[in-house]
Amino acid sequence: MVKICCIGAGYVGGPTMAVIALNCPSIEVVVVDISVTRISAWNSDQLPIYEPGLNEVVKQCKGRNLFFSTDIEKHVSEADIIFVSVNTPTKTRGLGAGKAADLTYWESAARMIADVSKSNKIVVEKSTVPVKTAEAIERILTHNSKGIKYQILSNPEFLAEGTAIQDLFKPDRVLIGGRETPDGLKAIQALKDVYAHWVPEDRIITTNLWSAELSKLAANAFLAQRISSVNAMSALCEATGADVSQVSHAVGKDSRIGPKFLNASVGFGGSCFQKDILNLVYICECNGLAEVANYWKQVIKVNDYQKNRFVNRVVSSMFNTVAGKKIGIMGFAFKKDTGDTRETPAIDVCKGLLGDKARLSIYDPQVTADQIQRDLTMNKFGWDHPIHRQPMSPTGVKQVSIAWDAYEASKDAHALCILTEWDEFKTLDYRRIFDNMQKPAFVFDGRNVVNVEMLRDIGFIVYSIGKPLDPWLKNMPAVA
């Protein structure tokens, strides 16, 4: 029986291994992690992450050929194929701070693999890593090999949170990069054979190592660039009276461009986009490509601009101050159908409003109160370190309360800010909400989910990103 071990039981490792186990009943799959709490959650009925369809997949294979364990060394030692899905946070100090990836966890995983291995291994990069990481890993393993052979493969994930299980079952492509040597090609084939259980062969792409590593960074950079492009257009739409939804629709009808990732919003978030672009910028700078680095930096600058612009709209619309005013925050996750808050634009928006001394009442159907408080008190990039390296019991932000539902969050509020596109925000009883709010009552829709005309008819003053401005907002500065 082929044995697979995955180091790291997070958003990538857990779901990916569950789908492999389901589709490959003849393969034993073990997911290992140093976090006892996280492994206990995977072994319980309350999984540590929320992802539609994940629960059902895990239930079908757990205890049959899918296992979760903290006995890392045992399972790494026994495995034929080792997936490494550990954190690669952005460095916060030293060379490349604020841009370069911190490979501390990757390096310690590689050293541990070398220490415990007694047979040849295929080591698969599943985390997003800088180009040429495989070379560093190879050096660590070969210099500590004790006669054991290792093949390093790059198999980046292209999952979108909220649809990760669907993406795993029907991927656009599976990318496997390896050394173009006889042993390297054999290792590529071994991993290809795993995916071939359910992925059509024409969707499994093989490349050299560096192409696979760079393809992941490039894909995320291109997607983030599209969002920043449409968000830049949204600012121009507001200035000119155009409607960004209509502009996006017209642009997306061009078959060369296509309609995906053209929804204007308060900004992109998630664990990958900003981190991977910063990583790309650093690699470009290290290779003397300053102009290329500056090009990609601009994608992040526009994203930060969009979040700042949103906060400034809120403050300037409400008589230039939100001090002491209650603002209901609708949604804290970075997108709907996930509880993930990593790099969510809600953090920067909330911090911006708190900076002007607003009182916030935050509601999100999937994010816990503890997580929200933790995010609002954490240092930048702190989220990307393992949980045991993060502050355990954050001191709560005094001006923040967590609401049980949207109606509680909006009661006696001066304004609502919609920051996640949860479906339930489209069907709320906005008449009831209006009646229970302070007047004038404002709605700042950062996701373009509400029916603007209907809300204006009720009596709200509505700001919707990239849409023609409410008469109230005209001649007010969009940027401080």
Short description:
The chain contains 17 helices and 14 strands. The chain is α/β, with parallel strands linked by helices and 480 residues long.
Give start-end ranges of low-pLDDT stretches: none
Q: Quickly give the CATH architecture of the largest domain.
A: 3-Layer(aba) Sandwich
Provide the helix percentage: 40-55%
How many domain regions? 2
What's the level 1 CATH class of the largest domain? Alpha Beta
Query: Helix tally?
Result: 17
CATH superfamily of the largest domain: NAD(P)-binding Rossmann-like Domain
Number of strands: 14
User: Kindly, what is the distance between the CA atoms of the first and last residues, rounded to a whole number of angstroms?
Assistant: 63 Å
Query: Would you tell me the overall average pLDDT?
Result: 92
Question: Can you describe what's shown?
Answer:
- This protein is an alpha/beta fold and 480 residues long.
- It has 2 domains: 3-199, Rossmann fold (3-Layer(aba) Sandwich); 221-474, 3-Layer(aba) Sandwich (Rossmann fold), CATH 3.40.50.720.
- It contains 17 helices and 14 strands.
- It has a 6-stranded parallel beta sheet, with helices on both faces. Strands 11-10-9-12-13-14 form a 6-stranded parallel beta sheet, sandwiched between helices. A two-stranded parallel sheet has the order 7-8.
- Strand 10 (359-363), helix 14 (369-377) and strand 11 form a beta-alpha-beta unit.
- The protein starts with a strand and ends in a 16-residue tail after the last strand.
- The mean pLDDT is 92.
Question: Could you outline the blueprint of secondary structure elements for this entry?
Answer:
Layout: E1 3-7, H1 13-23, E2 28-32, H2 36-42, H3 54-61, E3 66-69, H4 72-78, E4 81-84, H5 104-116, E5 121-125, H6 133-143, E6 150-154, H7 164-169, E7 174-178, H8 182-195, E8 204-208, H9 209-240, H10 244-252, H11 273-286, H12 290-317, E9 326-330, H13 345-355, E10 359-363, H14 369-377, E11 400-402, H15 406-410, E12 415-418, H16 430-435, E13 442-445, H17 452-458, E14 461-464
Helix pairs in contact: 1-3, 5-6, 9-11, 9-12, 11-12, 12-13
EC number: 1.1.1.22
Pfam families: UDPG_MGDP_dh (PF00984), UDPG_MGDP_dh_C (PF03720), UDPG_MGDP_dh_N (PF03721)
Organism: Gossypium hirsutum
